[in-house]
Amino acid sequence: MWYIALQGVGCNQEYIYAGKGMAIVAVLFSVKQKRTLMGGMGMNFINTIDDLFHMLDRYAEGVEWNTFYIKRDKPAPFLKYNKLPDKCVVDFIREHNIKNACEFGCGEGRNAIYLAKNGVDTEAYDLSEIAIENAKRYARESQAERVTFKAENIFALDFMDQKFDLVIDSGIFHHLAPHRRLQYRDIVSSILAENGYFILLCFAAGEDGADEVDDYAFYRSKQTGTAFTEERLKEFWGEKFDVVDLHKGENIVDNQMWESEYLYVCVFKKD
Q: Within this chain, do residues 81 and 53 fall inside the same structural domain, yes or no?
């Protein structure tokens, strides 16, 4: 990873270029913004990769998830079916003997609670404190004792040498800004046990109004997420994992699980 800071000649602007391999991100901000970028007084400088990532995080406008779960005014199926697990998770547990699991972006706990009630020791994380409080309440109501919920930023977590048989992402990857994706993939790989599985659900390009967004445009237009093609998913995740299954979901809802056609269902395996 490398970065270069260039002061614009004859203007009150500075350009930051950051890249890894062939990927390059360019962000433009004013000197005034620079002074307040890190929340301190006076000038701020990018001295570490973490500084650079924090700066880029500010320019990748994310979803305000607490507000999302309070208002509940978005047409998101996982709000409507907030106590039903994903079909792919149900199918997977029926076919595999899993001892422990970790879920990122667990929302109100529908998958994590299902895992716990089926004998899987589960850790579940979400950015939203509101979602986590709801998840804890639903777990108590369901008498699901083998699950812990925490409101945490996954990039601040330290799993030490902890390993999981299964990692689930049912809503994080497609909301990540481009500069965080490689780091996220490394986190998933580092906490998976050998021969462990990673289940990913993400927006399918062209489905239900979801568009694939150019990585440069993600910052320029302040996107909150992007859809992916099958080819991009295989290329990105295939560098670290074997592709076990990758298909578009179907519109399925019953009293036990649900699935949607606007999502890709992906199962990867770590060798």
A: no
The pLDDT tens digits for 113-145 are 999 999 999 999 999 999 999 999 999 999 999
Instruction: Report pLDDT digits (tens) over 4-22.
Output: 333 333 333 333 334 443 3
Query: Could you give the number of structural domains in the chain?
Result: 2
Co-location of 240 and 121 in the same domain: yes
Residues 116 and 38 in one domain: no
> 89: domain CATH number?
3.40.50.150
Structure tokens at 270: 């770590």
In sequence order, which residues have a C-beta less than 8 Å from that of residue 84 and are 6 or more positions away?
Answer: 110, 253, 255, 256, 257, 258
Q: Strand pairing of 164-169 and 192-203?
A: parallel
CA neighbor of 76 nearest in space, from 147, 128, 8, 6: 128
User: What value does the CA radius of gyration of the chain take, rounded to a whole number of Å?
Assistant: 20
User: What is the Cα–Cα distance from 259 to 119, expressed in whole angstroms?
Assistant: 23
Residues spanned by the domain of 41: 2-59
Q: How far apart are CA 133 and CA 193, in angstroms?
A: 29
Residue 223 to residues 36, 164, 212, Cα–Cα distance (Å): 22, 32, 11
CA–CA gap between residue 224 and residue 238 (Å, rounded): 25
SS3 at position 269? strand
How many Å separate Cα 44 from the centre of its chain?
Answer: 29
